[in-house]
Amino acid sequence: MIDATLTNLLAIQNETASSLVDVPGTWTIGLVLLVLISLGALLAAGQTLKRKPESHIDPAILRNFNKRVTSWLTICVMLVIALMLHRSVTIALFGFVSFWALREFITMTPTRRGDHRTLFWVLFGFTPLQYVLVGIDNYDLFTIVIPVYASLFIPARIAFAGDHKRFLERTAKIQFGLLICVYSLSHAAALLNLKLAKWDSAARSWELWESDTYGLLFFFIAMVQVSDILHFLWDRLFGRHVIAPVVNATKTWEGLLGAACCTSLVGMVIQVVLPVTPFTWWGAGFMALIISIMASSGSMTMSAIKRDRGVKEHGTLVMGHAGVLDRIDSICFSAPIFFHLTRFFTDAERHIAQEVIEQSVAAATLGMSCFSFMV
Amino acid sequence: MKQVTVPVLAALAKVLSGATVRWIGCEPETCQRIYFANHTSHLDALVLWASLPKNIRNLTRPVAAVDYWQSGPVRRYMATVFNVLLIDRKKIKVHNSPIDMMLREIGDVNSLIVFPEGSRNLSGKMGEFKSGLFHLAKKRPDLELMPVYIDNLNRVMPKGEFLPVPLLSCISIGAPIWLESGESKAEFLQRARKSVLKMKDS
Questions:
Q1: Which of A36, A109, A234, B15 has the fewest CB atoms below 10 angstroms from its CB?
Q2: Model pTM?
């Protein structure tokens, strides 16, 4: 009797485990190919325009455009390679990008001698810790370790170092850098952890969404990039009312709204053609809208920081560096919002009977515990 | 052994300091040069040395104080790896001039890295230059004097810290200067100092 139940349980576990296999689904592969091909096409178009001196496009804009497309292509290729290797590689990749971005952020903000040890712990303590927590899928901790523990640690450590000059300013700078570069960005990697439910309109009930979350992550990254491109195009073609000329002379209200609406449309189309997310078509459109607005807010914020530090419009934050932070500002701002909205609307735990979840959680923890040793 | 440790240590220094090297108005050359830079961190000599292209690096020797680089086995080993030219600050006499020793050591092959401020300053402002650079320029007018500005390294590893914070630093190397005919020591040192400061803003 007990044997039978045990075998039964194991069978169920194996079944759920196999549905959580780390293999991207057909739709995800389709989306990845679509993104890579369109980025390649944009790159080719940009390069062709560069070779044609008779075209009426401002060479500075074209150069900026080409640089952006090249860096997006690099990001996507790196992400695809990481996704193909292992979930942990993807998370480590995000961790490395966070580290580098924070390094750039701290470099451009003046700090004092008294901040040295704090910075050491922020870079080598909290940054890896955040990604380990994402890796072992400890939702309770990874959502609070930086807002609570790090936020309190930073001012205390600076106070212990015994330098009170511009204390609040210095504390705020380090906290902000950690929040944007590490905490926010880690939510993009945390998308891989989500266990989601899908509304089955035929059966009129929620059912477990049995697909890989790579698609979700790639959908998110693709939406941010689409939004960036559309914002750029709308600004150039229809931009009339500049939002804040002193902060950014090129970003317009038309660009913001146009990009948001068009990104939303693109999101809907992608969801209909390649259903990589558990959302309905209008749900995907709404998510894309939010992503686009947050992405624009992110680049505006980074522009404000750059202006404050006296960096030129198209200049990089750190002299002579490629500027990772420049490229990921839009991702940083939209990642936590997208993560939490997705979790809020389609979290499996809220929608589906507890036992189904427990089985998949058991299978997942088994996987996670192996993973935690690998980090 | 050195074939392995030198590239590894050079790579480590570059990764830790995130150093970008900018050659402004000049190109990396293997001709004999004196790189003179501002001095703000222990890492200055190592990072500047590591940032040079390999063929130039092999010909270039940082000049440093013997009392610092001979204290402790790690530093002593590092000094041999980086081929540091050690100067004893306490035994400087007329017949034992460090300038003559430097010139003797470099012969007509090697280049040098010097820090004319003498010791590291903590204020963040660049100090006045000591006269060594002038004497080097006077005795060997054929040497190219390259101004170098090292930015941010003092934040990577400030004085008295042993844990590095790997921020991004920037090394700017400018067009060479020479001692003009009839130029006084004070004038030359002022001009040399200004040429380093100019690299900061370019």
A1: B15
A2: 0.82
